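fyi for ur records
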Amino acid sequence: MGQRWVEEEMTGCDLGDARLNQRLAVMLEALGDRPDKSLPTAFQGWANTKAAYRFFANENVSEDKILEGHFAASALRIQATDGPILILQDTTEFSFKRSSPEKIGFTHESTGRKMKEGRHHKYTVCGLLMHASLAITPEGLPLGLTAAKFWSRDKFKGANALKRKVNPTRVPIEQKESMRWLDNLQRSTELTGSPERCVHIGDRESDIFELFCLAQDLGTHFLVRSCVDRLAEDGGTTISQMMAETQVSGTHDIHFRDERGNQQQATLSVKHAEMTVCPPIGKQKKYPKQKLGIIFAEEISPPEGRSPIIWKLITNLSVATHADAVQKLVWYSRRWNIETFFKTLKTGCRIEDIRLATAGRLANCIALCCVVSWRISWLTILRRQFSTASPAAVFTDIERALLDRSMPLNRQDARRDIAFYMTAVARLGGYLDRSSDPPPGTTVLWRGFIRLADLVAGFQTANPDASSTCG
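which gave:
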């Protein structure tokens, strides 16, 4: 894919040393060419691998500094678009097996095999957590990360155990891990420079009243899935009780894939209302009531063997009409894009196979792979939504020439647009390219780009004087 995209993601990055900046660019390009390979394989040799290990261990390098350039590039891509920007927030875990797990930390407690005495073996899982915000267009095109936070736990304390000792609603938000939702909302809003355009989208874990208040203070918007039946109006009723008296405004069809990857369709009955939502009882003196929109969508006649789809959404955007409610349902359905990003990061870049020994080094490596994963996700959606775009923005002259030769004769007359070359890459990754096949996904594309990088390396070895013009 050439060096141009690396330069774009590096423009706003400064590690305080020109040699570190240069090493970062070299490593980013190497991982972009071979995202699913081990670090020695990706960096092609002991000298480069050793330099990469020193880079990850350098005290002047951190995940924030590594991602600084990418954040700046994301801001430029956001500024180049019009209309709303959906900022998806979510948390993911990376698990590792280490002889010294205390050097990394822990994520949660898990239950293992059954022991002789009949009890199940319990153990804490070694790993890191990452909370990320991914900006996309309403059509689903990823524009880049806008915030990311990495952490681990020195000693894991189960949330349920803590709840038995203290009422969580009375603990200040600043003392909870859930503060990460507010931090990312604020950082992302500041990065975009257009709070009125942002719609921060999260799952049930983001149903936090402090987040609602922060969004109002910043002049930005949120759309989250509710997990709490909050007090409403004067406090004598709840959201669910109010919605039970609300008439269905219409239906909405959604398309999705089930756990087995099969295409599914569901028809949802939709209710919407705008009401006053009260803060938790223990915080009513600190936070004001909020005028919010509520959307309840429930699947009509769900099939046997699958749980019905039930979405209860809460937002500070207008939901005065059925069309408003449907728009928000469509936007919320885009939340799956960040799950795809995490899958690409874990499966495509094989983060959990990396053998780095400390939390800091792993976080630095994951941050670098985040840029690669975004790039793969961006190319996947670019092929679907902007199929007629010029391929010069993605592929070098050599890459296009090699991909031309890789396509079968019956496709040689096709238009040489971005869709043609992305399909050629996907074919290298195992895509069958039958008329009935859906568009290629991230898996076949990252496999295809690995093979393309090898083809380019072989061509340049055989033709050392060949031009390597970048797109």
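The mean pLDDT is 88. thats all i got for now
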